[in-house]
Amino acid sequence: DAFNFWKLIRRKSIIISLVFVILWLSLSSNLLHFFKTETIFPFILFSPILLLILAYSTDRGFLSSRLNFVMLGMLAVVEPILKLAFAFIFVLLGLKAWTYAAIPLSVSIAFILGWIFVLKGKKESKEVVHEETKIFPKKFFYASLMSGISAVIFLNLDIVLAKHYLSAKDAGLY
């Protein structure tokens, strides 16, 4: 059924994410020089995003397939509000250098909330599934995965390049 399929894909996505996190952490010293930063801590702090983002996407996909648009809308609104709230709190507490920690915190809370929504909205369906519908649509999955990844790269690559090629002040202004 759909819920068991969600559990399988989610488990695999977490395993894949663990590989990305290990690779990310092993390359962190090289990234330190690439981004001209003095501490490795931002790279370590970013690793929970890499760990959770695929499972979070799986949860959102499951909610979308179940037509739970209210819950999807709540996730779409809660995550940026949390990001802004955490950044505001860090600045208010005088921890301006920690404002980037708002990103992994907001993603982590949205991940937990999405997981709760999936578990809460779980419905056991009694519909008959034909054998030909049990085949996983690999071509569609890879096409949609590449589409999502390319959208993220397109929307964020300029910021990465600005951080690399511009001074810290100019990158912040950008």
Account of the protein in words:
The protein is mainly alpha-helical. Helix content is 78%, strand content 0%. It is built from six helices and no strands. It has helices at 2-34, 41-65, 69-92, 102-120, 138-165, 168-173. α2 runs parallel beside α4 and α3 (69-92) runs antiparallel to α4. The N and C termini lie far apart (48 Å). The mean pLDDT is 79.
SSE arrangement:
Elements: H1 2-34, H2 41-65, H3 69-92, H4 102-120, H5 138-165, H6 168-173
SS-derived structural category: mainly alpha
The SSE string, one letter per element, is HHHHHH
- Report low-confidence residues grouped into runs of 5 or more: none
Spatial extent as radius of gyration: 19 Å
How many helices? Answer: 6
Shape: globular
Mean pLDDT: 79
Helix content: over 70%
Distance between the termini: 48 Å
**What percentage of the residues does DSSP assign to strands (E)?**
under 5%
Strand count, sense and closure of the main sheet?
A: none
Total beta-strand segments = 0
What brief labels describe this structure?
174 residues; mainly alpha
In short:
The chain has 174 residues and is mainly alpha-helical. The protein has helices at 2-34, 41-65, 69-92, 102-120, 138-165, 168-173.
